[in-house]
């Protein structure tokens, strides 16, 4: 009897010990998750959303006809979550209403940021937001601390929904007469969200080419793109400036000034150059009004959104090169767009001018930029250039290896344009997306992901900073230039 009791105790103890071991394992896993850097947590957020979106899009209910291949579903989910707009399948005809709603949800969460929604959910459920969550919000949306993160996040969501609602209402005046109440309102909401989030997804097979002469659609889409591309902090400052009339003398921050000035210069200069270059090419038969509308629209959308009212395959090579520069610059920090950002371009130019003038400091609007920000800007620009060179080389090697000489030379511009468009999360294409092989699609997926999460965020997530005290050795001169 004693032996039988001992055996029973041993049988009982074994699963208890196993349970304790599993608890320790779970604790270790939780500790490891807590030790992750904020950049790694942000990447996990986006990867999780993309994977869930790809699984939903690969279901039979998401497609019209045969279900999407998983690689195509993954590509579409990444493009939507990273608000890019590149598509290997036609959104309006190949995806069902359910699939289109999945894409729309991914665009909305990706445009405003998964962290924004998750932090607001934590506040709503009365769950505290840790230091990492605050760090991510500060790094993606702010340049200075705020009194209340709850009010900031709630204000961003409400402001975005109001802008998208007004945009949908304006677009419905053009869409409803053409398509009827149901399809017209649905298309208006879809394109409004896609435009404000700078996604570039369209339900029309020719994108917005059919609305090239519609002033209301052009103005509404351009306004939504600009508002979604200048950043939530700038929108917040402009709202406060207009709302509080007694504080009209209040000055905008240096960040907002640089965003608005740089964006205006890029839009107007880009439209002027596009109009000059294409007036004798793709727009030679257009009237003066069409030329102005098309040039201005393409200058606005090429920096971040991805809509088009002209077939880009008809553009001249210099115009495509200009579009690649505008795409590489992209939108502004804390916005829905990608690229190296407008402020990085402004600081980069200011650094060059200051050094050429013999000034060791970088000054803008009678303010001095800190050395840390200047060094971070230089690192971002140079790292982006290096990353784009390597990624474009990989894409060209995959897509053009073994093809004819004539096809290689014509494909060089197409796939280089595609790579920059993916990294800057723009979504414009000259027809190369449909030609991507599976490995090429994976490369473009990586480009879209890195472009949306942020190149420095990805770099800091994988490269651990040294905790050692930096050593400075004796100086020695080097010849440069």
Order of helices and strands: HHHHHHHHHHHHHHHEEHHHH
Q: How would you write the strand order of the largest sheet?
A: 1-2
User: Roughly how much helix do the residues carry, as a percent range?
Assistant: 55-70%
Percent strand: under 5%
Query: What is the typical, i.e. mean, pLDDT?
Result: 81
Gap between N and C termini: 92 Å
Number of strands: 2
Overall radius of gyration:
25 Å
Account of the 3D structure:
This protein has 481 residues and is mainly α. Among the domains are: 107 residues, Helix Hairpins; 86 residues, no CATH class. 67% of the residues lie in helices and 1% in strands. It is built from 19 helices and 2 strands. The chain has a two-stranded antiparallel sheet. A hairpin with a 2-residue loop joins strand 1 and strand 2. Helix 10 runs parallel beside helix 13, helix 12 packs across helix 13 and helix 17 packs parallel to helix 18. It is globular. About 8% of the residues have low confidence.
Offer a concise description of the structure:
By secondary structure, the chain is mainly alpha-helical. It has helices at residues 2-34, 38-57, 70-81, 91-94, 97-112, 114-124, 131-141, 149-179, 181-196, 215-229, 232-243, 254-278, 288-301, 317-329, 342-356, 371-400, 405-423, 438-453, 455-462; strands at residues 362-364, 367-369. Helix 2 (38-57) crosses helix 3 (70-81), helix 5 packs across helix 6 (114-124) and helix 10 (215-229) runs parallel beside helix 13 (288-301).
């Amino acid at each position: 009897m004693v032996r039988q009791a001992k055996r029973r105790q041993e049988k009982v103890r074994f699963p208890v010990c196993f349970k304790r071991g599993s608890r320790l394992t779970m604790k270790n896993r939780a500790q490891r998750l807590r030790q992750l850097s904020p950049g790694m947590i942000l990447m996990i957020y986006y990867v999780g959303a993309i994977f869930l979106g790809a699984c939903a899009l690969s279901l039979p209910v998401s497609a019209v006809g045969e279900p999407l291949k998983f690689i195509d579903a993954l590509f579409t989910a990444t493009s939507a979550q990273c608000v890019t707009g590149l598509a290997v399948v036609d959104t309006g005809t190949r995806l069902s209403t359910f699939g289109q709603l999945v894409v729309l949800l991914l665009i909305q969460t990706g445009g405003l940021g998964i962290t924004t929604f998750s932090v607001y959910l934590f506040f709503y459920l009365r769950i505290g937001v840790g230091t990492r969550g605050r760090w991510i919000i500060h790094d993606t949306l702010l340049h200075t601390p705020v009194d209340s993160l709850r009010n900031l996040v709630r204000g961003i969501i409400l402001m975005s929904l109001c802008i998208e609602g007004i945009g949908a209402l304006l677009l419905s005046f053009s869409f409803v007469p053409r398509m009827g109440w149901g399809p017209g309102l649905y298309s208006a909401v879809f394109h409004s969200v896609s435009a404000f989030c700078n996604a570039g997804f369209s339900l029309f097979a020719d994108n917005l080419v059919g609305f090239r002469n519609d002033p209301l659609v052009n103005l509404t889409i351009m306004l939504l793109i600009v508002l979604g591309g200048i950043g939530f902090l700038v929108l917040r400052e402009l709202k406060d400036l207009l709302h509080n009339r007694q504080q009209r003398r209040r000055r905008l921050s240096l960040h907002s000034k640089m965003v608005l000035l740089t964006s205006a210069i890029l839009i107007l200069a880009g439209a002027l150059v596009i109009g000059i270059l294409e007036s004798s090419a793709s727009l030679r038969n257009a009237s003066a009004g069409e030329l102005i509308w098309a040039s201005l629209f393409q200058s606005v959308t090429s920096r971040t959104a991805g809509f088009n009212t002209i077939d880009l395959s008809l553009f001249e090579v210099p115009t495509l090169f200009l579009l690649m520069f505008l795409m590489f610059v992209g939108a502004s920090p804390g916005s829905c767009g990608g690229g190296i950002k407008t402020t990085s371009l402004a600081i980069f130019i200011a650094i060059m001018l200051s050094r050429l003038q013999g000034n060791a400091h970088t000054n803008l609007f009678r303010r001095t930029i800190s050395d840390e920000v200047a060094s971070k800007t230089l690192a971002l620009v140079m790292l982006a250039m290096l990353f784009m060179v390597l990624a474009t080389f990989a894409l060209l090697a995959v897509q053009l290896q073994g093809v004819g000489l004539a096809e290689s030379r014509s494909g060089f511009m197409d796939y280089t344009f595609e790579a920059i468009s993916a990294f800057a999360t723009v979504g414009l294409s000259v027809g190369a997306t449909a030609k991507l092989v599976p490995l090429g699609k994976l490369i473009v997926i990586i480009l879209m992901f890195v472009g949306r999460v942020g190149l420095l965020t990805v770099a800091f997530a994988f490269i651990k900073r040294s905790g050692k005290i930096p050593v400075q050795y004796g100086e020695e001169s080097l010849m440069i230039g």
